[in-house]
Structure formats: structure tokens, C-alpha cells
Amino acid sequence: MEDRQTIFGDAAERACTYLNGIERRSVAPTAEALAGLRKLGGEMPVDGEDPSAVLALLDEVGSPGTVVNAGGRYFGFVNGGALPAALGASVLAAAWDQNAALRVMSPVAAALEDISLRWLCSLLRLPGNCGGAFVTGATMANFACLAAARHSLLARAGWDVEADGLFGAPPITVIAGAEAHASMKKALALVGLGRNRLVVVPADAQGRMIASALPRISGPTIICVQAGNVNSGAFDPPLPDKGDAWVHVDGAFGLWAAASPARAHLAAGLGHADSWATDAHKWLNVPYDSGLAFVRDANALRSAMSLTDAAYLTPGDAREPMHYTPESSRRARGIEVWAALRSLGRNGLAELIERTCRHATRFAEGLGAAGFSILNDVVINQVLVSFGPSTPEVIRRVQDDGTCWCGGTVWRGQPAMRISVSSWMTNEDDVDRSIAAIVRAARIA
Ligand SMILES: *Cc1c(COP(=O)(O)O)cnc(C)c1O
Fold it and tell me: How many whole angstroms from 68 Cα to the centroid of ligand 1?
């Protein structure tokens, strides 16, 4: 008991000290901190160490080697922070040590998945009786949705893909916009539909699929639509005629626009699709890792993901989490999703979405006023900015300066800096300090 008090007390205190100190920390770790990480290695210890000593080493050497993702000035990739309720729930859930595979292994995890799925379908304006899966991220959510699509389209063609595989199966045509996320292509590779068989529809200047260029649909077809381009934030337009095609939406972060009355028009019509992949660890601000797959026909997802031939796993009538996921044993990540939703409420979530979008607009206006080119229409939380040929050098200086962190990309053939405002922590002061740091870096470079 005493040991427990010591180790949890110690962990909680170190976590608080870390979070209280992030304001003063360089957003990217210093070269010295990175060099220090080697102290975590050396030879594998022959005899074990005291848990408190392990934790002390981890904190003293490891904490300085973190990227300050938990603060308000990390704008790389599309990384959210961790809301206090979600972080607290994560700590409690770690102590619970639940395996979310089956209801009998964790009644509470299964119940929280059921509740969260119902709330999420309503918030994201999806059909109320969707099948859903809690997975690691949007990559696995895309994978799960494509597996459900593959099952459904081939079953309609009289082929049992889970039993007989893809060899000799009727071909499936997969269509996506030229700006589909790289993880969509990886997911296509994983489900055996192939990266290179993809029929690519050209995209416009914002990265939106040009709907009028969609080929005529014939035979089993999946159309992959994007809600929220990872660079520009743009949404693919509604499809003119989808016929019998399975429409899948990659809405890793963009799907959350549906939860904000002011942005929901961007996601209008997405509710008519057949499957949706999104992340909870981006805009919902739950700890990593957390993605969500939704499928209109719950049985298609279940057929694609069910295990067979394991008598000891035979479930009852209720929804069994592992029958909807690629994994069997699994972290109970639905607990954090529930805590985030419960602590935000509908209004809090709408406000989080709206506030981060407003900060993105503030970035675009500030950098635009300083004379730099904003390359995208800032429709949600993503900003693309160019500093001309010195853009890669400016990005390097911004990262070295440590006030904030922004990454780079190539947008329509030219290098650009990406700013993604996805964290609940970011406030106007963070935006203004970051604009000042970026302008300083750009004037020197
Ligand atoms: C981030 C992202 C993904 C991949 O998500 P992970 O959570 O990293 O697996 C897929 N699609 C889009 C549009 C994204 O922004």
C-alpha cells in the first residue's frame, strides 16, 4: 500500500510539475535534452531497479526530451492536446487496467463505448444505428471502414471475401480525389485493394475533388471522399451521382466541423455516406491513441471484423467491442472519449471547434498583414503560409526558436508552412506570440 502511495503520488506530482512548467519550455526539445536521451539506455540492467528510481530517471531525462504537445503553441501535423477530464480519465483507466475486447472483460468499457457511440453519431450527424469501432487512429479507422466496404460489395456480388480472400474475386474499383490522405492509400494496400489501382479524380486549387470529373460508376465501387484536407482543411464537394457505390469519408479531423453549428454546412451531406473514419486524438483532444470508425451497416463491419472458431470467446446478445475492431485485446480508449464528451457537452465541443477555427483565422490575418502569402482559404483550423523560396529555412528557424512549432509541406508544387490549431489549450496570446516569432524568423531568413 505504502509503495502504491509513493509511486502514484510521485507520478502525479511529476506530471503536475511537467504541465505547470510547459509555458517556460521550448516547444521543441533543446539539442542538449535530445543528447541526454542516451542516459535512458546503456546495457540492459541485470537486476531490476526500484520503481521510484525508474520514474525519476524517466522524468529527469525523458521530460526534457518531449515535444510540448500539451501546451498551447504546438501547431504541427493535426495534433490536439488532452482535455483535463480526458487526461484524468486516462490515468484512472490505466489504474483499472481494463481489456476492452469483450463485455465480460470490462463491463464499464463496453458500456462507455455504447454511450459514446450514441452521442457521437448524434454530434457528427451520422445515422443513429451505425456500427462503430474504437481504434488507434484514422489510419486504422480507414482500414476498418474499407474492410467493411469490401465485405459488403463482394457479398452483393456473391463472394465471401473473409472466407475466400481476394484471389479470383470480382474486382472492386476504388475512386478518390488527387489530394486523398496518404493513410487512405496505406489502408487500401492493407485491405488488398492496392495503392496503384486507385482511380484518381483531379483536385481544385483548395485540394477538393472536382466532382464533375468523377468517372461513371459501374460494378462494385468505393468512392473515398475527404472531409478536411490535412493541409488546406478543405472538404470534398457533394457527389453528383454515387449510384450503387459505397461512399467512404475520411474525416480524420474535418468530420468534427459537423459538431459546430457555425461550420456544419461544410460537412452537409456527409451523413448520406456508408462509412466514416475520424480521430478523437485530433480535434476532440483526448490522449493518444484514439480513432473512430463508423459504418452505416453495422453488420458489414461486424462481418469484416469478427473472429471465428474460438469457442471460449462466444459472446451474448449485447454489442461486443472486439467484433467491430481489427484488434482483439485492446486499451479501453472509449473511457477517455466519454470523459471528453461529458466534460465538454454539445456547447463546449462546438465552442472548441469554433475557437480553434477563429485562432486559425487570426494567424492568417496576422501573417497576411505582415506581408506573407496565405495559400489556402481558411475554412476551418488549417493555415498554409509561404515565405517564398526561403520557406524551408523559415520553418527551421521557427522550430529552433522554440516559441511555437510548425511543420512544412509542399502545396501545389511549392514549399509551405502548415499551421494547425487543434488544441483546447491555445489562446489568443499564444497565437500573437507565435505570429511574432514566425515574423521574426521570416525577416532574418
Ligand atoms: C491525420 C489524418 C489521417 C491519419 O490519422 P492517424 O490518426 O495519424 O492515423 C488520415 N486522414 C486525414 C485527413 C488526416 O488528417
Answer: 20
Task: Answer whether residue 393 is part of any domain.
Answer: no
Residues 18 and 117 in one domain: no
Mean pLDDT of 350-367: 98
Span 302-332, pLDDT tens digits:
999 988 766 676 666 789 999 999 999 999 9
In a domain, 399, yes or no: no
Q: Which conformational region is residue 248 in: left (phi greater than 0), alpha (psi within -120 to 50 degrees), or beta? A: beta
pLDDT of residue 308: 77
Number of domains in the chain: 2
pLDDT score of 345: 98
Do residues 26 and 111 both lie within one domain?
no
Q: What is the sign of the dihedral through the CA atoms of 340, 344, 345 and 350?
A: negative
| 64 and 178 belong to one structural domain | no
Spell out the residues 6+ positions from residue 215 whose beta carbon is closer than 8 angstroms to its own.
175, 199, 201
pLDDT in tens, 164-211: 999 999 999 999 999 999 999 999 999 999 999 999 999 999 999 999
Whether 249 and 289 share a structural domain: yes
Q: Which ligand 1 atom lies nearest to the CA of residue 230? A: 15
Distance 327 CA to ligand 1 centre (A): 19
Q: Is 139 in the pocket of ligand 1 (CB under 6 A)?
A: yes
